[in-house]
Fold:
Amino acid sequence: MMDVDDFELAMLANSLWLYADNARVCNETGISMTFTTEKGGEYSQVRPEYTVMTKEYQNVLKHSAKFGLNPGDREKIFKHLNDGKGKKKGFNLGMKAA
Structure:
């Protein structure tokens, strides 16, 4: 794996962790919270954790595609590895193993 791949995988792992942590909060407390104003009125707003969760979900989708973590993305990766004779090419990109 190349250094840039390590960085990309680390970003995916971080996004997964942030998503899971914020999803846990939302599952335990709900996606909105209610405040009482100084005059005694109440209003609700979306939890900040929900906003983070939804943004991290988009990051997970973006980063996971690069690793072929869902069937559609795997198909795109392996489609380019077909040698035209029904055989799949290896992952040899001309680099020597370390």
Q: What stands out?
A: Residues 3-79 form one domain.
